[in-house]
């Protein structure tokens, strides 16, 4: 079964981990200053300016402290960036999180940066409240730069420097002026990626030698893959760019024993996978993917000839293929090395099917999955439900608990 599920999960992870029109994953390879980092994504460095955060300038008092503190928080770690614009120096402006912790809010709370209200409209109402309260708490507790009697806001410092005069104290300043670019880097930014063209539908495959798995066009290594998710107008990725709350409905694929509760409005993909018996025949892998808030839910099902393997062996191979596909997809998507260990396996025999549920809390991208399998008339049925999330949500348990199998197939 592994031979079927490695390419299947490679497809799934490339789609899921590059899902949003305004998100990217990557490892922090440089901390440029107290509010700018460089993230390695899709084999290139991308400069990120923290949204609604303004740290002291490099040549300003506390500037070196802010940079060091940010480095201690994120350097050489994998972060999620939800970007919402491009700064004057070409860097992306985005909200950065590490293990669901808002790095910008943390910098403000630790007293090494100001809340930049000039960009607060790009934050959600709840995030604005967090940022405001973080600065208020840092001020009241005299953390970091607030230990000084009259700390000077970075925008006032930059303004005064430009006018060649001594800056005035602005401890109670609320509305910053537009921050001057600190420097222009030579590395590529996501402006290049946003304007990229040539992405293809994930269901499209190019021809390959007989008996080998077809290479999907999106996985070709001859030309760097465009970030299809970085183009909001791409209809193929519409399911992934919509983070709004969805209506949950019963999910019952025609002719299958599978049923679940899933958000509506997702995308269905049918991927032909060749049998490796030299016959040239294929089997269809069916995938339904949908995003709801900060989680992506997927259902996969496949019927393929059994080679006499036990149900437990088939599940182990499918889960192994799943993890291998996770690693390949994540690394190919530019996220770096993917670390993951199965935890909390629970056996779930239902209606004659062998099943299991797995937790993946320590993975680079946390997730959960359920697997069910059974051989009927020499044909193995395999059903997999998977949820990946950047923030834990109650609906994840709702999906997993509802993902189940029955004894009789519905009519096609």
Task: Describe the fold and architecture.
With 412 residues, the protein is an alpha+beta fold. The protein has two domains: 2-19 and 243-405, Protein Transport Mog1p, Chain A; 23-190, OB fold (Dihydrolipoamide Acetyltransferase, E2P) (Beta Barrel), CATH 2.40.50. 24% of the residues lie in helices and 30% in strands. The chain contains nine helices and 20 strands. It has helices spanning 2-17, 63-74, 103-109, 125-140, 154-162, 190-194, 238-241, 311-332, 394-402; strands at 23-33, 36-41, 44-50, 53-54, 78-86, 92-98, 101-102, 114-115, 205-206, 215-216, 248-251, 258-263, 267-274, 282-292, 295-305, 343-347, 354-360, 367-376, 379-389, 404-405. The strands form five sheets. A seven-stranded antiparallel beta sheet has the order 13-14-15-19-18-17-16, with helices on both faces. It has a five-stranded mixed β-barrel with strand order 1-2-3-6-5. It has a three-stranded antiparallel beta sheet with strand order 11-12-20. α3 packs parallel to α4. The chain starts with a helix and ends in a 7-residue tail after the last strand. The model is unreliable at 170-234 (pLDDT under 50).
